[in-house]
Amino acid sequence: MNLTLIETGGTICMADGPEGLRPAPEKVAAALAQIAPGQGLDHQKLEPLVDSADVGPTVWNRLLDRIEAAQGPVIVTHGTDTMAFTGAALDAALAGQGRCIVLTGSMHPLGLPGSDAEGNLSLAIQTALGGAAGLHLAFDGACLPAGCVTKADSQSAAAFVRAGDAGAPPPVARRFDPAKSLGIVTLTPGLAPRALTAMLEPLDGAVLRVFGAGTMPGALGQTLMGFKGKPMIAVSQCAQGGLAPGAYAAGAALWAAGVENGGRMSAEQALTRLWLRLSVASPKA
């Protein structure tokens, strides 16, 4: 079986540096020689390797190019901080293609005593060799659907939990337009209208994290109406349950302003799906 591993960076490949952990290009290759000797893996690297804090639409597009060029299952090693965003992005862009893609990473670098990295990498290889269609996250002894997870713990090896909607609609585009500016805006008690204005004005589209089943501070209603026509999706700040438009008067301003109901989508899913919708379709779309 043709098996490709695309290394992007992240904690799994890092070593100590003067300012803290930073990518070490030799680490994954050395681990693969021990974990999968003779496997004939096509080990590719994105250059430069990056902390996942710097992953966004440009890296997503580069990954999609590599994935679509690969002949068989693909493993992507990635940092954990934005793993859920990349999972949601790939899930939406690759919808309907029936590929076997496995994301993995770790909370501790390869080669350290007690690290989770070797186990996660081994699980990713086993999952990819199984060839089951779908986008998988191999982490802490389990395989989760990588398109609907969120990072819920910054320290534990069990860092990810399921979140959001398992279904992905057919994308409008297959690549993300890096020139677009999108963001997630969390509505909080006491948020000043001028602050909401400052956050929304420069964005081409936004995901609004609102309260509960879909409410927001009444003081922000008029401000939000001023952005009617800007593409916006509302999702709940709650991990489960989603939104219920019309349940509370305190949410009426959201729907009056034309904000889309994100239902049970996670913020990661809403952001990446909106980004695809606003992106110009590429020749591969």
List keywords for this structure.
single chain, 285 residues, alpha/beta, Rossmann fold, 2 domains, four-stranded parallel beta sheet, 8 helices, 14 strands, 27% helix
How would you sum up this structure, described in words?
27% of the residues lie in helices and 23% in strands. It has 285 residues and is of the alpha/beta class. It has two domains: 4-162, L-asparaginase, N-terminal domain (Rossmann fold); 182-278, Rossmann fold (3-Layer(aba) Sandwich), CATH 3.40.50.40. It has a six-stranded mixed beta sheet with strand order 4-1-5-6-7-8. It has a four-stranded parallel beta sheet with strand order 11-12-13-14. A two-stranded antiparallel sheet has the order 2-3. Helix 3 crosses helix 8. The chain is elongated and about 65 Å long. The two termini are 27 Å apart.
Architecture blueprint of SSEs:
Layout: E1 4-9, E2 14-17, E3 20-23, H1 27-35, E4 42-50, H2 57-69, E5 74-77, H3 83-93, E6 100-104, H4 117-130, E7 134-139, E8 142-145, E9 149-151, E10 160-162, E11 182-186, H5 193-200, E12 205-210, H6 221-225, E13 232-236, H7 252-256, E14 260-261, H8 267-278
Parallel strand pairs: 1-4, 1-5, 5-6, 6-7, 11-12, 12-13, 13-14
Antiparallel strand pairs: 2-3, 7-8, 9-10
Helix pairs in contact: 3-8
Order of helices and strands: EEEHEHEHEHEEEEEHEHEHEH
CATH superfamily of the largest domain: L-asparaginase, N-terminal domain
Put simply, the count of helices is 8
Please summarize the sheet with the most strands: 6 strands, mixed
List low-pLDDT spans.
none
| Cα-to-Cα separation, first versus last residue | 27 Å
Q: What is the CATH T-level topology of the largest domain?
A: Rossmann fold
For the largest sheet, list the strands in their spatial order.
4-1-5-6-7-8
Shape: elongated
Radius of gyration of CA atoms, rounded to a whole number: 20 Å
Kindly estimate the percentage of residues that lie in beta strands according to DSSP.
Answer: 15-25%
Kindly state the number of beta strands.
14
Can you give the mean pLDDT?
93
| CATH top level assignment of the largest domain | Alpha Beta
Name the structural class: alpha/beta
Number of self-contained structural domains? 2
The CATH architecture of the largest domain comes to 3-Layer(aba) Sandwich
What is the helical fraction, as a range of percent?
Answer: 25-40%
